[in-house]
Amino acid sequence: MMKKSPLVILLFLACSCGHSQVKEAVNALATPVSKISRQQTDLIFDMIKVFPDQTQFAVAFINDGSVHFYGVKRVNDSITAVDNARSVFEIGSITKVFTSTLLAHAVTEGKVKLDDAISDRLGFPLHNAVNISYKQLANHTSGLPRMPSNFNFSAMLSPSNPYKNYSNADLEVFLKNDMKVMQNPGEKYDYSNVGAGTLGYVLCKIASTDYQALAAEKIFKPHGMVSTTTVRASIEENLVKGLNAQGQETSNWDLGALMGAGGILSTVEDLSRFAQAQFDSTHTALNLTRTSTFHVNDHLEVGLGWHILQAETGDTWYWHNGGTGGYTSSMALDVKKKTGIVLLTNVSAFNKNMKNIDNLCFELMKGLAK
Q: The pTM is what?
């Protein structure tokens, strides 16, 4: 299983120190709603009960093309049901799937080829004349590090919102003057936030627009994703407050030049629409994102953005997760069976129990496979 890779760096792990003990919550969930079983709600309760007060889970169950929503919230040591299908959360690195989808659109429209060198469209050569392709950015084989070497200074200007001050100019300085690859591009899978951010940056440069406008045109509007955006002010009234590792409200993250790595906010309702679109075999761009481009091991391959897992059930799952200072997410799809789970939470990526989020996603997927 792939190690969880949230949009975080070691500089900010200090934020997760000093966890207060969380009292396990009481299960106050009523009789399950239609299509959601007691086994599923009990599983959700078992995962959420260790998280702080005001924690929310929003879940979309996708089964044979139908979608059912279920939400829970911890209030005063009790877990109760809540209607949060249209509540907005930061989705973190699931954004990378959207950035790679923008690449797939550019490919199908004939604007670029996957193996083209990005420097041809950047307008300047990469440091040491390294050649990196679009595909290598999208499947994490570029050789780039997880974070740019000049990131820490701008992050220190706003520790609770670390990406906010990292500008396009900063990214260009990194790419032109400071960039070093850890291995030759194309040789090895190595998860990179700066790689995904660079992909978003160069695609916007090609389209002569910004990330929000490009994603809205190619993905959000065509798939009816009415509450999905990178502009927080437009969804503020429906935004669930993010919680830090101690369960206190924390700052949202603005992704600056690395928008393509993790800057999208969305709902389980909207993401379920994006998920269902993956089941359309005639959608050329979406099909391209799910085509394997790199073999990591017997259990994992990488498409464009998507991680392709060989599940314990024997099924193939397309998966990505995300984590920011106040949110954790996980999304898995079985395209063949037209099933999937979308899970959005306001659990911090620094929370010591954040692994529960992926575990819950996978366990719910196993249930759908039966």
A: 0.93
User: What was the pLDDT predicted at 288?
Assistant: 98
**Which parts of the chain have pLDDT scores under 50?**
1-6, 8-19
Domain residues for 294?
A: 85-369
Q: How far apart are CA 106 and CA 275, in angstroms?
A: 20
- pLDDT for residue 30: 64
Count structural domains, the chain: 1
Is the residue at 76 inside a domain? Answer: no
Q: What is the CATH number for 274?
A: 3.40.710.10
Q: What is the pLDDT of residue 27?
A: 73
Residue 91, helix vs strand vs coil: coil
Q: Report if residue 183 sits inside a domain.
A: yes
**pLDDT of 14:** 34
Residue identified by tokens 């400071």 is 178
Report yes or no on 39 lying in a domain. Answer: no
Is 13 inside any structural domain? Answer: no
Q: Alpha-carbon distance 275 to 333, whole Å?
A: 7
Residue pair 101/305 in contact by the 8 Å Cβ criterion:
yes
Q: Is 14 exposed, middle or buried (0-12, 13-18, 19+ CB in 10 A)?
A: exposed
Joined tokens for residue 138: 């999208």
Residue 128 CA from chain centroid, whole number:
31
Computed from CA positions of residues 98, 103, 108, 114, in that sequence, does the dihedral angle turn out positive or negative? negative
182 neighbors 191 (Cβ within 8 angstroms): no
pLDDT value at residue 28: 67
CB atoms within 10 A of CB 221: 12
